[in-house]
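Blinded run. Sample ID left blank on purpose so nobody reads anything into the name before looking at the predicted structure. Input follows.
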Amino acid sequence: MLAIMAALGVATSLPARGDGEPAPDSVPGATLQRLLINLVPRPGGGLLVRQISPNSPTLQLRPAANPAVVERIEVGDVVTRVNGEAVNTLEALNQALTRQSGQARLTIIDKGTGRAADYTCKTSAVQQRLLIDLEFLPGTGAKALSLKPGSPTARMRSAANPAFVATIVPGDVITRINGENVDTPEAYIRALNRRAGGVRLTIADGATGQVSDWLSDTTSIASAAPEIAPAPAAARRSAWILLVGLTDDISLGLSVEESLNKLQQLFKAEVEEDRMQLRILKGDACNANTILQTVRGLASKPDDTVLVYYLGHGAYDPNAPEDDPTRGHFFQIPSGDLSRASLRQTINARPGRLKILISDTCNVPGQPRFRLSPVAEARVAQIRGLTPTEKLLFHFRGTLDIGASSRGESSWFSLPYGGWFTWNLLQLLPDQSDWGSLLPKLATASNGFYVSKRMDLLANPGDSAADAIESIRNQTSMTPMLFANELNSDIAQADANNNALRNITRTTRLFLP
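Blinded prediction complete.
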């Protein structure tokens, strides 16, 4: 008979096949589809990811926009839709997952950027069990022969009075599960898996024949769980840096070359060699097709940083669409122009946590020419952990697009500085570890440098071209333009715990008239 007992808690185990329960997936409609992640309802809607199983299929997400890329769900992300259905409760999630077997389409809000995107992933087939050896009696029900270790029916609660706890015993007969007859193995398995979670069992006492309803938990058994390698512990982020310069230009070429060299020296000094892939495109390689193809070929991973820096001529299209966030800005290249929007979209399509586009170009043509003599001073700095430049590359996520000049302004170049904007950026990078503080300082420094050099040039034009003098007279400021999208702090554990001590060489350049 049903035995009334005290609360009991024991571990679950997987029963051997041949216990009267059909093998996994053998009964149509009797297998649940699961993501193997712990989710809780979020007040603002959707389900918040709290924990992820090492075998969760969500560790291999395929973005709907780019199925060739593999990404992972993270604790803190929010699942808002499954197979097109809004999921604000666990019951809604389970129902949505049943719409398709073996695969699901998820809409996920990224915890870092706040942006929603669609992904596809496999689902894990799961069946619920009571872990009981059974004999099926046609027309009657499922007779209990014995309980497996960990059977949830060892602690059932009375449906009439949940304070009463009992265990099923050999001889008792389960006649219904959630109101469905269970006199065959197929009916039993299907009823158990009609919905996720606990079940209501109608049980006939084997000794008295008395029938009553009891509430029982179930044990979930994963069937053919996908083989997924867990994420490597504390993986370090890498930076993929592409420097592009119009070095063949007759007016800017030498200055662009100077800036490219200085940028390369800075990154090589400030970023560990094994964490950076740096490439330079200049000369004939500075053309629209090669630039876009090179960006598409960057083998960045989901946790990496992608940075593209362009130096050369630039302009804007006054007939650009109103919804163009770059306001029609494009890079003027003799072999064919490249729109800023196209380059930006190509960068953003690469895997990575942080995407950066920086350009030192005009929005209208023009450049002055000065002649000064440089004096270089090198010093060795001792750094513990990451350099400020590495922190900029590896401690953030989002997208960032910076231009040297605002719409209607020129960006200026001259030797020995190179690009004036780039020169000021190079002075700040070694000491700035936060984009939030760097960007306003860069705007102030770049504009201040321009105002100073403008006054010098107007006071002493020398052999500067007349059109350059006229242009700089009409332009009273040079204000960088900025497009940032969900630029947030995002520090990997490996970097947070990095206290290694190392020496780096920093070069300071002074200029004498």
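Unblinding after everyone has recorded impressions. DSSP finds ten helices and 32 strands in the chain.
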